[in-house]
């Protein structure tokens, strides 16, 4: 990590000096890590690819604000978290809009989609072992992000708080709330399946 | 925390993720050993979290980073991010710069010399052309015809005076010859114009009177050998027969357009 951090700093200096292509080595070095995070947060390969791309684009535009003593991997990771959050929010808005149009095309009001799975969906999902994914649909974007960072990315409370720009106690409560919601949804899914 | 107080779910979650404070963690672990109910709750949580969702991201190949860079590079803005401070290298004089400076000065002198020689040569050529042009005979400038503005009322006044002088001219005297002829020639062009205008406008009285006047003026102006007693008497008789003086006086006094009808004619008898 030390050598990688040094390499990253050298590369960043080159990019800031005008060598645009040098940014490519940063992308190559950190893409797979960001993809793993993005996939866990979005649950979708195409969305994950978009999140990775958007994260590196934002990183390029904000590179001048990067502190030389910071770790680029951590920095770009946080950017990717926010990109994934944005993706989740936009996906939820799109879903709500579709539900509204299906219910009443004449009605302009946006309705919130009911993410509870139906019986057929539950049976199918249980068969292919995606109970967890269905359970996560009960979470808000913030809760899902906090849970992924805690449960899958093994980030501690301080890191989650920094990534989400919230207080540590808020981050801890968000993880707890996510766990509670998922366990309830999981209990229902097990009974139904 | 006492032995009788059960662990809440929040603490259990903290324990699972190993996030409880050190003292709290030890106390909670000891409680779990002694409290079957809490131990069962913790195992349930542990089971859920372990089996809840083991979503593993699809493995991406080694070339994933390169593929992503191609995507990113296409979407990148044209300019590189602006650096916070890229110090410009300080300018410093170098000995080899004398060579460049000498070369530049030499080029400047050469260019100035070429410009000066060219300007002098061009000046000499210009003087030669001017001298040759002055030696050539200059073609006579075309003479512009003199034109005069005549008003119908003035024309009739002059015509009346001419006719009065002609009526009272002495055939035995030769002093009246040249002034009458010159005045007649001066009236010819204007009379022809106003006669044509009268014909076009359908003013037959005017047209007929000016036509008779035209014949008289032409004979008076173009009398071969000048006026003599016989020719003068002939013109006086012609004028009297036509009642020309009377007609001109009537036209001069009655015509409402005498001051409004203005024409431009060539001086000397041509329109």
Figure out the total of helices of chain B.
10
Mean pLDDT of chain A: 80
Query: Given the C-alpha coordinates, what overall shape of chain B results?
Result: elongated
Radius of gyration of chain A: 19 Å
- Calculate the terminal CA-CA distance of chain A, rounded to whole Å: 45 Å
- Count structural domains of chain A: 2
Uncertain segments of chain A: 105-117, 119-129
Find the count of extended strands of chain B (DSSP E, 2+ residues). Answer: 2
**Rg result of chain B:** 62 Å
Mind telling me the CATH class of the largest domain in chain A?
Mainly Alpha
Question: Which percent bin holds the helix content of chain B?
Answer: 55-70%
- Described by its quaternary structure, the protein is heterodimer
Give the helix/strand class of chain A. mainly alpha
CATH architect. name of the largest domain in chain A? Orthogonal Bundle
CATH superfamily of the largest domain in chain A: RNA polymerase sigma factor, region 2, helix turn helix motif
Question: Which H/E pattern describes the elements of chain A?
Answer: HHHHHHHHH
Strand content of chain A: under 5%
- Count every beta strand of chain A, where a strand is a DSSP E run of 2 or more residues: 0
> Averaging pLDDT over every residue of chain B, what do you get?
78
Question: Can you offer a commentary on this structure?
Answer:
The complex is a heterodimer of chains A (193) and B (271). Chain A has helices at 2-16, 23-42, 45-61, 72-103, 119-128, 131-136, 141-152, 157-164, 168-192. Chain A has 193 residues and is mainly alpha-helical. In chain A, helix 2 packs across helix 4 (72-103). Chain B has 271 residues and is mostly helical. Among the domains of chain B are: 9-50, no CATH class; 147-266. Classes of the chains: A mainly alpha (193), B mainly alpha (271).
